[in-house]
Amino acid sequence: MTIEPNRPIHHGRGCSIPEDDVLAALWEHAPFPTLPVDAPSEIRDLVVDIENPKRVYTIHRASRRHNLQLLIDRFVFQLRCGCGSNSCTETTCFTYRKRAAGKSPIRRYNPNSARTLAVYLASQDNPESRLCPYLRPSGGPSDAILPLHLVPKHPSTNERVKAHLPPSKSRNFANGSAVRPASLRNSQDRHVKKEDRHSPPKAEQTATRATNSSPTPMQIIEKPIGKKDYRSFAAAVFGTVAFKMLEWLAPNNMEALSEKMETSRSSTKSSARSQTSLSSDDADEQFVAPGVAPRDSLGGNIPIRRRANDYAGSYPGITTVVNTTEFHTNPPVERPSDEAATRSAKPRRKSKAKIRTSSGSQPCKVVVEPLSDPADEILFGSPSSVYRDAVRSLTDQSTSQPHSEDSSDMSADISADGRSSRQSGHRYKLDNHIPQIDGLEDVSSSGPDTRSISLRSEEHYTGTPLESASEIDSYLPQSLSRLNPDAVNFICDVMQEDATMERHLLEPPTISDPLRHYTGRRKAWKRKRKPHRSYSHDLKYEWKLFVEQSIFNVLSDPQALLESFTTQDGVVDSQTVWYCMLRLTRVAPHLVFDSLWIAMASLFVPPRPLQTSRSPTAKVFATSQRSFSNAEAASLMSICFHALIAAAPLVTDSRQLLDMSRIRSRGLSLTGGALTGHHTSLSLQYEDAFTDDLALRLARRLLMAILTRRGFDELIELDLEMLDSAKEPGVLDILLSQIEPSMQPLMRFSKSERSVHEKRVPILLLDWARTVMIQEWTGKPDVPGDGPFGGALMLIEAMYRKRQALLLGDVHFRFEFFGDRLDSVDMPVSWLSYTSTRQKAHLLDFPFIFKPASLVTYFRAINFSMMSHSYEEATSLQLRIRMYTEPGSLVTEGHQRSALEDLLRTPASKFLILNIRRDEILTDAFDQLWRREERELMRPLKIHLGEDSGEEGYDYGGVQQEFFRLAIAEALDPNYGAFTVDNRTRMTWFQPGSLQPEWKYELIGLLVSLAVYNGLTLPVTFPKALYQKLLGEPVTELHHIADGWPELASGLTNLLEWNENDGAVEDVFVVTYEFSTTILGQPVSRRMDPSQRESWPQPSLHPYDKPLSADNPMDAPPVTGDNRSAYVSDYIRYLTDVSVAPQFEAFARGFHTCLHPKSLTLLTPSLLQSVVEGTQEIDISELRRVARYSGWDANHPTIRDFWSVVKKFDDRMRRKLLEFVTSSDRLPVGGAAHIQFVIQKNGEEEGEGARLPTAYTCYGHLLLPEYRDKEVLRERLSMAVENAEGFGFA
Fold it and tell me: Is 320 exposed, middle or buried (0-12, 13-18, 19+ CB in 10 A)?
């Protein structure tokens, strides 16, 4: 066995215990797992011996608990005493608190408060980082044990009688039967008489045992300090003995109490000896002096530990009565000198096991008691008698004659240490309370010691005979070297059958037969047992130890993980790994998560390229640990993520997965509304799984590993010597490729199960990332980029880029939790000036986690902030100008004052004012927008439309909407020559080779920019490819052009999917490798050359220039099956880029004039399209819900008739009605809730010539008279809607 170099462990008493000494002590006392003898033959090939004590699970658990207690003691000392250094900067250190308080009084934590805070600090991730670097170990026990005094305890008469009786009689005495049966009394008397021939008198023996064997029981009395206020809740709770024991039982205080007890006991030995001599005359009364060990029927001493297991008495420990505390110790069992010599000559473990103990640690005694609670004493057993009894019993069993059937039945009820099955069962019940990892309990977490293995296993298995005593004496702990689906099914079935699983809250708690799957290559593994026999508690406990050791050994070793759950080519079978983790997390979830957390530490070891001698980072990352490549690291992370996914409740409906993900994206456990009982129960199950502490700790480490591996990749890229080598893919790219639905699982799953699993993995992976983000969020929009939060953002961003391959939509990435809690105005405005770094990031840098309505709100908040800033700047400038131009100011000349006002009118104007004639809309707009300064364009827009012809209208939004509707309609008219409109889809696109100059395209783009900047929608229909290009996203796929050119996209799709078995591509499609379009009525085509970027030919106005069609290629190569993919890509590029490059670039310059470039990153192409074009579908029911009334009641007959008429309108009439009231035929983003639609009463009309309805489009008011019937209303409303134009006052 090899042990790492000595690493000192800080001890509470001021000394250090080397880690080797702790491991050596645990190696001597911890139970060792071995493969039970009834194991199937298939599993024996996977069994290996464990020589490293750190790889033994029982040692690992006890060592962790010991180190945790010592860490808590250091935190207590830091909180209460401090480090005493003037350079201390740790906020929890008392020295820093005292210095920060200055002259103000500061209150020191009391022991209980300090220990409570210390437990919290020690339970956090990386707790050592919260320790003060100047802290020194404490020099002694805490003040909590100063009021404790130790005095001898005098037992009562019943206790003395009970302690002196044999175990069988002590139970009868405890049941109230003090009179012994005659047969037992006579047999004992005969035995005593026989013993008296060869032994000293009884009184002398008793005195000898009293002075040499058993220590005197001591009683701890707490001296009351001051007066206690019984009305105080704090005093009533923290003053109880239960809370005080938290401090009394600390490792440093336990050692001090032990020394104090030895001192007190030595002072009372003489008085105890005198009491024993006085009571020797009454030997027939069978009373025993205090501290005397009872005798059994053979005259030997009964160890206190075994006596505690034989009757339902108290554990060795501390019991309290009012203000007194009784402290019992577990005395060592005496051995004859010859036996002691024999035991010392024969080692307990293999002779080749090398446990090196530090010679420098002699002054510091290794105390094993503080490593565990009293239940752990039962788990580890006595270091002397139990192991000796086990070896003797096994030796007798291996050398005895075969038993008869009756005798074997009798021996099956006798345990290895001579106890009956009832006694053994009682011990098993006691051991049920032994804690597991970090204080977590099992349903049946322990049983008899493996060194006292039951001998009744002959009746439960048929296997090889037992080894000899010499072989048993030198065994090593055993474990499985790796896991496979068959082994996982077997060990999980064992834990379920034996009911030795961990207690947990995961659902389902067990995996029943309908949910089990097998590889199909061989039958399931089974234990060699007889079904008609009840299974031994000892074998159950033996199996439990072996299974826990196997899980810990495999899952905590990264190399074993890769060998167990990856294929030969290093790929993770997603569904098979998920099933294995599902089984394991239902029998030992906390062991699984803790073991995987240990294994993931290897991900932080730098890869091999950074450790080479040639690399400049070799000295920085010098390490002897094994490193893993990105592919191996991705496989390890995939295995761990599948364990987290398996921890979630087992849901077989993909719709429920999406519903639960939507609920949790809001940061909720439950939602109001019509949730059924099943959804409520499922929500609570989700909450139990996603709040598990160990699972969250594993998730945090995985997300931290993502950032670490990215940092390693960046360092490798910076290494100039590594540039020539092939770059390894990133760990996230490999990880996501392994969860894509592409591999056929190894195990047998139905088609529906595979379909659900393909959706389960990415959805639950997003849910775990969201859970960590919620746990880590501090409520601010700027978040740490170098912690688990940053790793979660990186994972979600990588999944968003590959959402199509992962079968995810945009809705799966919505995280409404943040959007509902952040300020919708100040947050996006402050983001404009925020610069993200590696340490800090902003949530708006990841806009895909916000819902579209929130993003539009942020986008418009940014525009409004810029508009307000320009308005306030102009207002301030106007006030300063007025100081110079008013009468009595510095400028006295009237002519000079007028000239100055004319010069400063433009910069001092608060608004961007456009005076537009209705018959020259586009010309006036171009003339007034041409060469405007940027600060003018950023001001609020005011439109004066048609005022030259007598129109009157106040621009409160309606006049602007009318202006943009008319101006855009004229600019996009095909007769204008700048754009073309598809007759089928009504999509507008640039005219290739247009005669219009580029500055007009720039002004048209400026018009669109002004409309968006002022929050208006336009009656345009552009293909989505335009918005992708405006946002800088490439247009390369067929679905990018499907909405603008559906017939072309369909034809190119058929070309790509054509099966050449039905004919060659060049013969069926007859397409040449060229791009063709129409310019000025002439077909123009050019051969597409992917190797170079050529400009599209532009027409010339000179009459003698040759036409563009003269250069059409005559020998373009045909499109074949080999080049059809390249042809489709090149055709899309020429269609959306090359043929219209000058026109689009000019349009994009104008579009970006008023919009901040960073604000556009908040929008997706679809969302930008909605912002520009609005929503063309009008839902009358939604419009009716948001409508308001003035002078009307919602239940008035005229109002009911109005909505009845409008509901029967077709789409064209609905758009006209909306345009009649609001000046726009489209709804903005968010629907009708974002417009004002008011129906106001406008008198009563009875005759045939009733007035038509009118509208205040500036305010969104419809003036509706009260008509006599429904038909009149329909006629008058239709007439008004179809013939409306111009502005005026009704």
Answer: middle
For 136, phi then psi, to 5°, come to: -115, 150
Query: Which sign does the torsion angle of CA 10, 13, 17, 21 carry?
Result: negative
Cβ within 8 Å of residue 1108, ≥6 positions away: 993, 1079, 1082, 1084, 1097, 1099
Residues 6+ apart with CB under 8 A from 1273: 1198, 1201, 1202, 1205, 1267
Contact residues for 201 (Cβ-Cβ < 8 A; gap 6+)? 280, 283
Determine the number of helices (DSSP H) and then strands (DSSP E) in the chain.
51, 20
Task: Output the six-digit token pair for 1263.
Answer: 């003036």
Instruction: With H, G, I as helix, E, B as strand and everything else as coil, classify residue 1283.
Output: coil
Whole-number Å distance between alpha carbons of 855 and 384: 72
HEC per residue, 856-908: HHHHHHHHHHHHHHHHHHHHHHHHHHHHHHCCCCCCCCHHHHHHHHHHHHHHH
Reference 482, options 550, 542, 546, 548; nearest CA is 550
Rounded to a whole number, what is the distance in angstroms from the first to the last CA of the chain? 100
778 C-beta neighbours (distance < 10 Å), count = 8
- What lies within 8 Å, CB to CB, of 118 at 6+ separation is 72, 73, 75, 76, 78, 79
Given the DSSP bridges, would you call strands 941-945 and 912-916 parallel, antiparallel or unpaired?
parallel
Sign of CA dihedral 781, 782, 786, 787: negative
Spatial contact of 94 and 586, defined as CB atoms under 8 Å apart = no
Rounded mean pLDDT for each run of 10 residues along the chain, 1290 residues in total: 40 56 86 91 91 92 88 90 90 93 88 86 87 81 77 71 60 44 39 41 42 63 72 74 76 78 72 50 38 39 33 33 37 37 40 38 33 37 36 36 35 34 36 37 39 38 42 73 92 92 91 74 76 81 94 95 86 89 94 95 87 58 75 94 95 89 83 58 91 94 94 81 65 90 72 90 95 93 92 95 91 90 92 92 94 92 93 86 71 73 78 89 91 89 79 68 89 91 88 90 95 91 94 92 91 91 88 88 85 76 74 85 91 91 94 94 93 85 87 88 89 85 77 81 74 80 87 87 59
Please check whether residue 504 is in contact with residue 591, taking contact to mean a CB–CB distance below 8 angstroms. no
Hey, what are 44's tokens?
């024996």
- Cα distances from 226 to residues 114, 147, 229, in angstroms, run 21, 11, 10
Q: Which residues of 288-315 are buried (b: 16+ CB within 10 A; e: fewer)?
A: bbbbbbbbbeeeebbbbbbbbbbeeeeb
Q: Which whole-number Å values give the CA distances from 222 to 145, 217, 324, 940, in the listed order?
A: 9, 17, 6, 80
- CB distance 127 to 71 below 8 Å: yes
Of the candidates 279, 328, 15, the residue with the CA atom closest to the CA atom of residue 152 = 328
pTM of the entire predicted model: 0.76
Rg of the chain over all Cα atoms, to the nearest angstrom: 43
Q: Name residues whose C-beta falls within 8 Å of residue 1057's C-beta, 6 or more positions apart in sequence.
A: none
Residues with Cβ within 8 Å of 1033's Cβ and at least 6 positions away in sequence, in order, are 1165
Peptide bond into 111 cis (omega under 30): no
CA distances from 576 to 187, 488, 640, 744 (A): 66, 11, 13, 10
CA distance 862 to 865: 5
Q: What is the pLDDT of residue 165?
A: 63
The DSSP symbol for 536 reads P
The helix/strand/coil state of 1075 is strand
Q: Given the DSSP bridges, would you call strands 218-222 and 324-327 parallel, antiparallel or unpaired?
A: antiparallel
Dist CA 453 CA 446 (whole Å):
13
In order, the DSSP letters of 184-240 are: HHHHHHHHHHHHHTSS--HHHHHHHHHHHTSPPPEEEEEPP-S---TT-HHHHHHTS
Distance (Å, whole) CA 815 – CA 48: 48
